[in-house]
C-alpha cells in the first residue's frame, strides 16, 4: 500500500517535470515563471521523498522515461514539432541507455555514496 | 551554440547531483552553494538551449549527459566498476545524442 502511493507520487512528479520543461521553453510573463519554478521544486521534492520508499535507480528510470515521453509528445501535439520516425528512434535509444545505466548502477550506487 | 549550451547544462547538472550526494553526508554552506550553482546554472543553460532546439530533444539529451557523465565520473574518480553493460549504455546515450545533433 505504501509502495503504491510512492508510484503515484512518481507519476505526479513526472507530470510536473513536463510542466516545468514546457515552462523553461515557453514561459514569458512572471506568473508563468512562477508556475515553472513551483513545478520544478515540487517535482524534485516528490522524487526525493519517493526514493526513500523505493530503489533509487528504479524511481529515476521511471521518472525520466515518463518525463521524456511527455516532453516529446507535448512538442509534437501542441508546439508543432514535426513527427519523424528517426528522431523518435534516437530518443528511445537514448532513453534505453539512461534507464539501463540506472538499473545496472541503481543498487550499488547508494552503497558508494555512504 | 545551442548544442554547446546544452552540453554545458549537462555538466552543471553533474556538479549539482554530485553536491546533492555530498550534502547528505555533511551539510555545509560551501556544498550548498555549489549545489545551487550547479542546478541553477544547468536550468539557465537548458532554457537558453531550448530557445532554438526542440523541447523533447533538448530535455532527452540534457538527461542523457547528466546520467552518462555521472557514470563516467564514477568510473574515473571513484573507482566504480567498469562493467561492460554500463559502457554499452553510455555508448548508446552518446550515439543517440550525436544522431539527434546531426538531424539538426
Helix content of chain B: over 70%
Number of domains of chain B: 1
Number of strands of chain A: 0
Mean pLDDT of chain B: 89
Q: What summary fits the major beta sheet of chain A?
A: none
Silhouette of chain A:
flat
> Residue-averaged pLDDT of chain A, rounded?
85
What structural category characterises the helix and strand content of chain A?
mainly alpha
Distance between the termini of chain B: 12 Å
Structural class of chain B: mainly alpha
User: How much of the sequence of chain B is in beta strands?
Assistant: under 5%
Rg over CA atoms of chain B: 15 Å
Structure, explained:
The complex is a heterodimer of chains A (114) and B (104). Chain A has 114 residues and is mainly alpha-helical. In chain A, 89% of the residues lie in helices and 0% in strands. Chain A has helices spanning 2-26, 30-53, 56-78, 85-113. In chain A, helix 1 crosses helix 3 (56-78), helix 2 runs antiparallel to helix 3 and helix 3 packs antiparallel against helix 4 (85-113). Chain A is flat and about 40 Å long. Chain A starts with a helix and ends with a helix. Chain B has one domain. The mean pLDDT of chain B is 89. Chain B is flat and about 45 Å long. Chain B has 104 residues and is mostly helical. Chain B is built from four helices and no strands. Chain B has helices at residues 2-25, 29-49, 55-77, 84-103. Chain B starts with a helix and ends with a helix. At the A-B interface, helix 1, helix 3 and helix 4 of A face helix 1, helix 2, helix 3 and helix 4 of B.
Summarize the structure.
The complex is a heterodimer of chains A (114) and B (104). Chain A is mainly α and 114 residues long. Chain A has four helices and no strands.
Keywords, separated by commas or semicolons:
heterodimer, A: about 110 residues, mainly alpha, flat, disordered C terminus, B: about 100 residues, about 0% strand
Amino acid at each position: 500500500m505504501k509502495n503504491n502511493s510512492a508510484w503515484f507520487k512518481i507519476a505526479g512528479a513526472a507530470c510536473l517535470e513536463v510542466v516545468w520543461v514546457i515552462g523553461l521553453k515557453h514561459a514569458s510573463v512572471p506568473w508563468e515563471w512562477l508556475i515553472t519554478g513551483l513545478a520544478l521544486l515540487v517535482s524534485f521534492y516528490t522524487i526525493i521523498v519517493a526514493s526513500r520508499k523505493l530503489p533509487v535507480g528504479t524511481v529515476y528510470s521511471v521518472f525520466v522515461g515518463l518525463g521524456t515521453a511527455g516532453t516529446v509528445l507535448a512538442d509534437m501535439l501542441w508546439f508543432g514539432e514535426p513527427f519523424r520516425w528517426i528522431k523518435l528512434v534516437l530518443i528511445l535509444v537514448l532513453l534505453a541507455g539512461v534507464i539501463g545505466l540506472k538499473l545496472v548502477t541503481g543498487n550499488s550506487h547508494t552503497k558508494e555514496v555512504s | 551554440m545551442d548544442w554547446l549550451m546544452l552540453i554545458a547544462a549537462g555538466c552543471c547538472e553533474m556538479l549539482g547531483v554530485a553536491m546533492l550526494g555530498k550534502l547528505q553526508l555533511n551539510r555545509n554552506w560551501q556544498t550548498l552553494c555549489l549545489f545551487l550553482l550547479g542546478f541553477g546554472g544547468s536550468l539557465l543553460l537548458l532554457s537558453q538551449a531550448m530557445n532554438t532546439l526542440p523541447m523533447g530533444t533538448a530535455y532527452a539529451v540534457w538527461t542523457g549527459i547528466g546520467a552518462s557523465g555521472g557514470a563516467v565520473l564514477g568510473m574515473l574518480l571513484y573507482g566504480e566498476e567498469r562493467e561492460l553493460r554500463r559502457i554499452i549504455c553510455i555508448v548508446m546515450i552518446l550515439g543517440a545524442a550525436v544522431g539527434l545533433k546531426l538531424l539538426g
